[in-house]
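Bump. Still looking for Macrolide export ATP-binding/permease protein MacB structure tokens.
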Amino acid sequence: MNNVVSLIDATVVYPDGESTITALDHATLDLRAGQVLGVVGESGSGKSTMLSVAGALQVPTSGEVIICGEHAEKASVAERTEIRREHIGFVFQSPNLLGALTAREQLLITEHLRGVRGKALRAQRDRAEELLQRVGLEGMGDRRPEQLSGGQRQRVNIARALMSKPQLLLADEPTSALDAKLSQEIVQLIRELTDEFQFATMMITHNRSQLDIADRIVEMRDGKMQEIPASEVGV
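Sorry for the wait, here they are.
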């Protein structure tokens, strides 16, 4: 099986005075290329903790986290940074675009900071243009954030996450600031891009109606995950 990320009994425990809080309780799952995993649950159920562990942002207290064949739970801080840079794209609730930069420059800022020059930079510029076109922003590369709608800014956010050709896309409530129509457009775009580029996607959402784009659905309760059929979450 072509697993992009595997969690094996991943557990996260925080101290809480004289006791502890288990934010993630023996989570186990495999996510393959081309799959969209929808994650639902109440606030504090462990959704964001699981995404953080799967994205090598947090080391579990125990258990294993294997990302593209690399054991993230055993990696140093620098090694986890490299895992994220090489393998993972992040789409957060807010696009967090830099006001002074154009849409095109948002996608290229990492290359500039890394000192990429010459043919390599030209290749990345070409990729930026292709991605802007692919997410529905053809001809808008010179616009700054204030010249874009909320949905368009989130499309820039998605394109930026794909610049490094990730094998895993982690989307944390990517439509929470959008209306119903734009939200559906964004999740459908994520579905299409997952199919087209064959990365794996883990998407946290509070809107259960968006789970119709998911191949699999996990519900989180008190840090425990349970994979459930779509019919049980009202899709």
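The longest helix spans residues 180-197.

Edit: fixed formatting.
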